[in-house]
């Protein structure tokens, strides 16, 4: 696919924006790709619903917002309801059964990953939830390697926390194995 | 009336973060008004811009959400033009004392009967955690990444020096005290200032490693003491709570009425 | 009926107009050359039961009058360039919240502190665009004390009718010179009173829901209707929203309520336009010199005319265009580097025929200054 | 206050944001956050109806209903 | 040479550019959506030995940087609409006193508090006319992070070259989005350093006496030349005067030093203009959508072109006119009610062929928005 | 150096009215600088707008005549960017405390080493005699035709409360005292405030029937008294003169240098 | 003469502006004439040289400044030097020998009136100096009656001072008797 | 001060505005205003060279020159 239009949605504290930034930064700094990232600010930032857009492509990206995502991540029910309608026909929805009940929609691929459960079980720190999600997204979009993501995380996260993040990343990556390169 | 009758329920839950002390100030304010038993139509709430300023949207009075720092200037127009109204002006610390510092001291100087509530969370909450004139030396903030070298104002001292005739301080922990002070301040016939220390767990708390909302609000108990307490003598670092000034001096609107009389040939 | 006759400064004509219009609350901060308005109202307002307050600066002055307008009063402030610059944020707030108020800017030489005691007309474009963000505005001006009086009354009328701030752009020369003023009898000039809602207590009042005629009835703070006022984009109850549809609706409303009424809001005077071959467009103090020249040249048989603008914003482009059609040349006379000039050029069919007769050295533009330019554009040299 | 007899902890789950202030500051440890991070009165019998939770809750989410002041 | 590659917000690209240009002093007051510039410089400036101060408001911020410029430093402040409104008086002072400084306005939805976290391009006219009194100004903008970086450097270069404040008009969308930025190696981009006087101690230095090339050498406060700086009209030593000749000379100088250099100051990018039948004129974030459309339509064989303006003021009218000659239509794409639109209309020969493609609801103008307007002006309906 | 070497003689006689107290302040300032023996190149005088502000044009230092009320904001930029300069900021009472009040309290809060001289004539001289925040209740002014109802600030109290670390007050009558205070204030390493009561015969004097310049300046002798004097106890209406605050606290520019060190990996 | 173009000059404290205002006001309120008055502000107001313009006419006055006065009053040497050049050829100059040494100028009528001396001798209060000057001007221009001037003074001056002013006015009026209606 | 011996009252008549402050406040009544309203030392012999006139003159118009400090 020429261009990956991704939208990450969730609630204030879930770190979806950070995840989006890391993904886009990885694509640019370590995969030789072009990427832009943008987000919705506002009262949303204070508790409500948050949205981050990422476009990854091989060539210049001009208009930086995603109108119709090929892939939508929704980590709360509210975010899901709000954003599901914009998913491109045939697009992928990633959500977590812990937070979201998905309805059936014709012509969309709904992937439910028990990421929260996984993170709590394996790592026990909800703070790396977003990195786990990132692992899953990386596997599904297939153009960003987990090792590259780790390189970015190394510049952003104190040494002591790296391992935990690595684990979370792998967890997500593994969880999404069945959907590898689904989007490519 | 139950306090819910004083709010605009449709905007709840409000937009403040979990555990934001501003909510407790709202809570205290509503109780104070409830105790006063005033009609909602007699009350005007004027606010500036900031998380704190959003309080005006939540209360079912006449509400005026203005410009950053300018609430007291707008409020002065409201009050002087219609002195029978009770004007309450909740303000953030930045709002009241950074950009709004001049209006603060001048409202105090005039002794115009309004109640300024300074919701002091020691940070610019709304814009994401920059330091305020109340953060103080050593505080961490997005604009003080090396710890702040800016000394802080003492709101009480400043209000006193500027001429406020009712000056009190409390904290979100001491919610009942707050209610009492706001109550008294509204009744006071002159410019009244109530500083309430509140927690911003999202920015101040996070940057300054203060723990969650509960830890932050509990800290207010430990770092404050009633005015003139023994504890203060032993530990001068403690912040005093209580009513620092309460005096009767000519109120601006009342004095203006005398000018009108004089101008119209009376007196 | 006998009108009271006074011999006063232009600034006093302005305050007399404001009192006639029903001014009830004034907040201001002294600045040359507008201080006589502030001083005069300190004396006069309490005598009519109104309130005067000298604020700590111009920012608080405009904020205070907005607050006082909300309690149901007719309000005004006056300043000059530096203070007007400081008022821009508050002015934008009044635009956004649709609160009637009158702001007088008695222009002096700018930019910056410039020439405090000399005249100029350099704030014309600032009056239109000084506020951040898209917006529209009404700005009036006048060239004689009688007109200053009337335009001040008009400013209040327009402010109340359209729930908008109105700027009155005077200049130092008019503000400080003295001439005769006849104060109309009560009732002679129509006054627009605030339109208050007829919605009763207990029924939902919408401060931002226009009636069929487009007007937005108000309810005084302290009355039975409690609503919210905010400078954020808001819904019809006055509560913040960022819903794109509502945002779009509001900005269009704010724009259209002024821009769609250009002709209704246009105030101007025409002198010898009918058979004029050349036409001057001018306003404020400059228009006096322009008219002097026109009358003088008419005596010599030259077919000169003058269109004197009293509404500067919204710019009456259609009227200007119409009056300039077929003229040999259009000469804009103003005391700046050419501000209304550009509006005239935009408006007319042949912008290359539009010339500027100006003066920017702090001195009043004189008839000889204009003669000279006339000669030049007639190809007659200096 | 504190004299009246408790009738009910009325907790508005839509408004409660689970900040934990009431939980932490209840002198009798009556309250806890549940799995959905909402305050619940787990030991209502210990409650002394001091209303400290009510007056401090930043979200106006908790009300202590006592016998005399039923609203 | 290996350029450092970063993935950053536009606001960070701006501060990187400022540091590259040699920024030494920054004073600011936080406001969305510009705060990242302030925050980033709080961290970065001291590391390069520069000074950062958070002032009590925007008024004092612009005043502080002017003070710091006078001691010989490269200075900047950043804000958004409400703060930019408050800065107008100080900005006018910098114009009048000819003190180099850079003011960044990251535009958000206006007027008033408006839409703090949504984008807009509503301050374009304010940048030109927000200051009271006649004046000229330079305002630059950019649409990509690489350009933001370069235009920031340009802003400093122009400020130093012409002793003038320069406004950098960014917008929320550009300021907040993240994309790649390559930081040029030192020396890659030319930097203009402050021109200091060569007049020696004891010899009369004239702070306001232009050299033959028009440049005005400066002398740092604290140095051997003591002179005066004032916002009043002043003589070549910087002392107040109201002599009409000097007043005239100064205002003309302030005006001409910018307006006579329109073409020198013009920065712009051309895309497919040569054979274009229709041409878009755009800038900032809107230009990204416009270019998207142009490239997309080119693939389908439609002869569309884009002129992207990076200098908004002084408006490069000649260049716009030249590029628009003979085109079927000109479409101005911007996120306001039509501000640059009017400049384009004034510039071109056929103003009736100029159309506006805009969006004013706080949302980023999309390619589909533009397609729709294109269809309409091609007579194809919705 | 004789004091004339510190002025720009070509602008003399100056534009102040006969007997204007501002001239005496200039006189004292020059003597203070003379005693300090500083180089003229080390001194920057920053002023706002007002009769008082015109002082900057008369002194042969680096001079910056700015905007009404904003002198301290400009001065902060000058000082922080080049801390080795001595920055003196003469201000009118309106300039300093009406429109400029916020910059005044914030400069004090930061304790940035500059000297603010408040030339207090209790009136707006330049614009023709409107009341200022220091006119006080009962004062007559063009904007207080019925006598002012506006209470006045106490400059000393306000400066103290805001955090100034050197605060003194004198009058034009006590010219020698003024010289000493200005001298000490300039040497003080922190924010210093010297209030000097001066006479405006043209506006304040005329409106308030104070007589000519000589009567006005003599009145300063009668209405003031040294701090803590017995006279004050007997007559509390007397205004105290002297040095109210003089303390050593971290200075802003010095603290900032530490930030630079920290940021550059030192300390 | 259709139009009287007058310029009053002097120093800050001499009250020339007040005199100009009173004259113009009298013309408008009590003589049925048209008049405009304007003045130069500025540092001048604080001690230096002051100038007030008055135009009196029978019909509309548009441009309100006087470019070439028919009558110039100069009460200080500085004011004289500054303003004498703009006097219209054939115009009248009024000055006071106490303050001004006039040079000879062809084609101008220089009237020297010892007004200061007169005021000090007869009244002893320099404050009414400007009213004395006004009396002289009134006689010379001939279109404004002293009684009318008194009517205006009555509205501006406390009762107790009226007599003194009347005296000053008459003094000036008498002094200028030789030049009655010189300008008409 | 005050110790040095008086040599001369140097009064700058161009700068003196005749405000009378020096006249009024001279402890020895040394000064007066002349017909042109300029300060003059009419009783120089009484002068104690206290320089109070000099330091208070708002116009920098008067200088007391004393023996040791001849400028
Ligand atoms: C003129 C202007 N400058 C800056 C801002 C940005 N701004 C909004 S709120 C705020 C500060 C908020 O802090 P505070 O007043 O302490 O309130 P809090 O959010 O902490 O309750 C700032 C700087 C603005 N809206 N307007
Ligand atoms: C923004 C602005 N507002 C108002 C003014 C007008 N103004 C100039 S000086 C002044 C006040 C002067 O009073 P003060 O500061 O006490 O100085 P003084 O003249 O008495 O020495 C005022 C209001 C101005 N120049 N700029
Ligand atoms: S950011 Fe801070 S002040 Fe604002 S709502 Fe959140 S906790 Fe409260
Ligand atoms: S204090 Fe209120 S919001 Fe917080 S947990 Fe308790 S009930 Fe919930
Ligand atoms: S009323 Fe008191 S005891 Fe009962 S739950 Fe609340 S805080 Fe605890
Ligand atoms: S007006 Fe007052 S302050 Fe100004 S120069 Fe004259 S006496 Fe001094
Ligand atoms: S104090 Fe100075 S100006 Fe005043 S009279 Fe004496 S010498 Fe002259
Ligand atoms: S020095 Fe002293 S005694 Fe001599 S004239 Fe001056 S004031 Fe009088
Ligand atoms: Mg805060
Ligand atoms: Mg003053």
Question: Could you describe the 3D structure shown?
Answer:
The complex is a heterooctamer, with two copies of chain A (184 residues), two copies of chain B (267 residues), two copies of chain C (382 residues) and two copies of chain D (71 residues). Helix content of chain A is 39%, strand content 20%. Chain A is built from six helices and six strands; from the N terminus they run βαβββαββαααα. Chain A has helices spanning 16-30, 77-83, 115-122, 129-141, 146-156, 159-175, and strands spanning 3-11, 34-40, 49-57, 71-74, 92-95, 109-112. Chain B has eleven helices and eight strands. Chain B has helices spanning 21-36, 55-58, 71-81, 93-97, 101-110, 155-162, 175-187, 201-207, 213-223, 230-234, 252-263; strands at 43-47, 62-65, 86-92, 115-120, 166-171, 192-197, 224-226, 239-246. The N and C termini of chain B lie far apart (43 Å). The model of chain B has no long low-confidence stretch (mean pLDDT 97). With 382 residues, chain C is of the alpha/beta class. Chain C has helices at residues 10-21, 35-44, 58-70, 81-86, 88-97, 124-129, 145-162, 172-176, 244-259, 262-265, 284-299, 317-324, 340-347, 367-377, and strands at residues 4-9, 25-28, 51-54, 75-79, 101-109, 115-119, 138-140, 165-171, 178-183, 228-230, 268-271, 278-282, 304-309, 311-313, 329-334, 354-358. The longest helix of chain C is centred in the middle third of the chain and has 18 residues, at 145-162. The model of chain C has no long low-confidence stretch (mean pLDDT 97). The radius of gyration of chain C is 21 Å and the shape is globular. Chain C folds into two domains: 4-183, Thiamin diphosphate (ThDP)-binding fold, Pyr/PP domains (Rossmann fold); 270-377, Rossmann fold (3-Layer(aba) Sandwich). Chain D has 71 residues and is of the alpha+beta class. Chain D has one domain (4-68): Alpha-Beta Plaits. In chain D, strands 1-4 form a two-stranded antiparallel ribbon. In chain D, strand 2 and strand 3 form a beta hairpin. Chains in contact: A-B, A-E, B-C, B-D, B-E, B-F, C-E, C-F, C-G, E-F, F-G, F-H. The site of one iron/sulfur cluster has 13 residues of chain D, from helix 2.
